[in-house]
Amino acid sequence: MKIIVMGAGIIGVSTAWHLAQSGHDVTVVERQSGAAMETSFANAAQISVSYCEPWANPEAPAKLLKWMFRNDAPLLFRPQLDWRQWRWGLQFLSQCTDAAFRRNVEQIVALGAYSHEALKDIVQNTGIVYNRLERGIAHYYTDQQSLDSAAEAAKLMQGFGVNRRVISPGELFDIEPAYRSFSDHIVGATYTSSDESGDAKVFTQELARRCEAAGVQFVYEHDIIRLERAGNTVGSVQLRKRSTGELLSWQADAFVVACGSWSAPLLRTAGVDLSIYPGKGYSATFKLLKPERAPWVSTIDDEVKCAISRLGDTLRVAGTIEVAGYNLSLDTPLAQARCQMLADRIEQVLPGVCDTRNEAQGGQPNFWAGLRPATPTNIPCIGKTRVGKLWVNAGHGTLGWTHGAGSGKAIAELIDGQRPELRFGFLGV
Ligand SMILES: Cc1cc2nc3c(=O)[nH]c(=O)nc-3n(C[C@H](O)[C@H](O)[C@H](O)COP(=O)(O)OP(=O)(O)OC[C@H]3O[C@@H](n4cnc5c(N)ncnc54)[C@H](O)[C@@H]3O)c2cc1C
Predict the structure, then answer these.
(1) pLDDT at site 79
(2) How far is the CA of 171 from the centre of ligand 1 (A)?
């Protein structure tokens, strides 16, 4: 089949890879000049099968209210004049029950485990090197109440086959001595040895290269304008070449939308309405000044909900979510407060370990923002829409890197008429 994949983030590229492996004629269309230039560019780097609880949980509504006016809050909902944001918010609240939480976790864990195997297969078959660290993920807590809730979550995860266990501060420091410098604050942790970390951008760009070698055509610097329907089927996709403004209309046997947060507006041009809304997050990448004191184990700091991952000679610190529209700016007071929080926190936890002011680069800190394509459940939309020839692989929210390899594999299997072997609610199946 001739298949057009829209978007060259981790999800689109992984989709293209798996489709090409099963013999399809694949073209990927992307507005940027290369793969992984948007949300897959500088995320927290965690392949986190075990730390995957959705933001929608029974405690979330109270926390949201408490955090509403705090610029450095881990989760912020800032109302916009956009009824889709309000709809998303109401759907999110409807997921904040024990039953919904459990149901969502079950599917997220299933996709995570399936995806981890798919990632290992790709790495084995391609030899891609991407600062991978197979040292597990730790999650430390600075207050007893949060640790007790984490123990409950760990029990739930264990029930779904994930080996996330509660450990004492002493065990944490044995696993990752770097955090001894913050020992006065840490009351305990959870740890999963099978989780890992690595650079999503490097992996995606390398996989795109392998795709090209396997015959996939990448068409960069083209905006996808709309999906053009012919009756109840998508007949073609309309593109605009960025350099000339030329409009093109391309036909195919199947179209896969993998445009991250922009999937929802694009799908609406074909009459498909999915509740995917951007959740802005920030990261900072700091050069290591004292590599010998920097952590190797990828970690989550529960108090500020930021993740810390070592990528070569840098430390990536990333976190917070802001449901406030499609703005990617780093210049607003809110964005500046959130970025500064990441730098301040890393100085507090690992004092002097990295160059948080980026002195070497003239004091310009290496901050970045990305829009997580968030669904109210944190479960991505993978499968067939009700419009003929139109497929979707989007809405991966906080876990697109973790779920990338498996989501690509799953949609390729679905397009080939197979049922992926996992308990997951695929669209249209
Ligand atoms: C701060 C932060 C930390 C994160 N940490 C982690 C983590 O540790 N682990 C994890 O698993 N996940 C993490 N994530 C989530 C993960 O990064 C995302 O879920 C994932 O990158 C989404 O991939 P995607 O391919 O769907 O989207 P993208 O990477 O955004 O790719 C979509 C592509 O579509 C293109 N596109 C969109 N619209 C158009 C159009 N109209 N025309 C042409 N091209 C278009 C874009 O240019 C883009 O390249 C994090 C996210 C953030 C923001």
Answers:
(1) 87
(2) 34
Token readout for 90 is 């109401």
Whole-number Å distance between alpha carbons of 8 and 15: 9
Domain positions in the chain: 2-40+202-274+378-415, 53-103+132-196+277-374
The pLDDT of residue 360 is 66
**Is there an atom of ligand 1 within 6 Å of 322 CB?**
no
Answer whether 380 contacts ligand 1 (Cβ < 6 A).
no
Ligand 1 pocket check for 13: Cβ under 6 Å: no
> Domain 2-40+202-274+378-415 carries which CATH code?
3.50.50.60
Give the count of beta carbons closer than 10 Å to the beta carbon of residue 127: 9
Residue 342: the pLDDT is 94
**Among 5, 39, 137, which residue has the most ligand 1 atoms within 8 Å of its CB, making it the best to mutate?**
39
Bridge partners (DSSP) listed for residue 77: 323
Measured by CA distance, the residue closest to atom 40 of ligand 1 is 224
Handedness of CA 318, 323, 326, 332 (dihedral sign): negative
Its CATH architecture, for the domain 53-103+132-196+277-374, is 2-Layer Sandwich (3.30)
Alpha helices in 221-349 (DSSP H): 263-268, 333-349
Q: Could you report the average pLDDT of every consecutive run of 10 residues in the chain (429 residues)?
A: 98 98 98 98 97 90 86 86 95 96 95 98 98 98 95 91 94 98 97 97 98 98 97 97 98 98 98 97 96 98 96 96 94 92 96 86 81 98 98 98 98 97 93
